[in-house]
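anyone seen this seq b4? input:
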Amino acid sequence: MLERCAGLMGWHARLVIAVGGLELLVGIILIVRGGALLSVNQPVPAPPLEIAGEQAGPADAAILDGQRREPARRIAESLIAPPPVDASEIERVEARPPLGELGLAVPPRTPMPQDWRETLLYHPVATSSAIFESMGRKVIISGTGDIDADQTCSFRDEGWPCGQRARAAFNAWLRGRALKCFLPPDAERFAIAAPCRLGKQDVGAWLVANGWAMAMPTGIYNKAQATAQSAEMGIFGPPR
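predicted toks r here
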C-alpha cells in the first residue's frame, strides 16, 4: 500500500514538472516572436541629406522637411531705401514759435524779503480800485495800477465815473473779509505794495481780470488785462 502511494506521488511530481517546462517553452517562443515583430515595424532611418555637396545639419533637415523657403528678393529699393543726403545741403531753421501762451513759463514772482511774513488783515476797506486800509495799514495790491476814485472813463463816446465804480466793486468783493498779505514787521506802518490773497484767490489777478485795475508793465497780470479788454470788462466796458 505504501509503495503504491509513493508511486502515485512520484508520477504527480513528474506531471507538474512537465507542465511547467511546457509553459516556459511557450513563454520563450512568445518573447522571440514579439522581438521579431518590433524589429519589422521599426522605421528605417532616412539617409543623411546633402545640400550643395555638404551634409545637412538638423536645422537644414527641418527646413527641407517643412515648407521650402525661397531666398529673399530685392523689390523697389529706390522707393524704400533712404536717398543719399549731402550734409552741405542741410539748412538749420529757427524753431517754430509756440501756438499760444499756455505753454510758456510763468514769469517768476519777485521774492519777498526774509523778514516779511504773511499777515491777516481784518475788515479791509477799499479806498480806491487797488488800495485798501485795514488795522492801521495802507496796502497797495502789488503788480496793479490803481484807478483813482475821481477818474472818469469813456465808452463809445459816453463818459462815466469808472473810478468810483471800481472802488465800489472792490469793496463789494471784499465784504469785510480778512486778507492775507506779505508785509514787513509791525514797526513799519507806511503805505506799501504787497501781494494779497482772499482765501486761495489772488487779489491782484481778480481786480485786473475783471477790469477794475490796470496791470503794471513789469507785473504778471498783463494777460489778465488783455482778457478784460477783449471782453469789455470793468473800466474797458460800458457804464455800470
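DSSP finds six helices and 14 strands in the chain. The longest strand covers residues 117-121. kinda curious what u guys think
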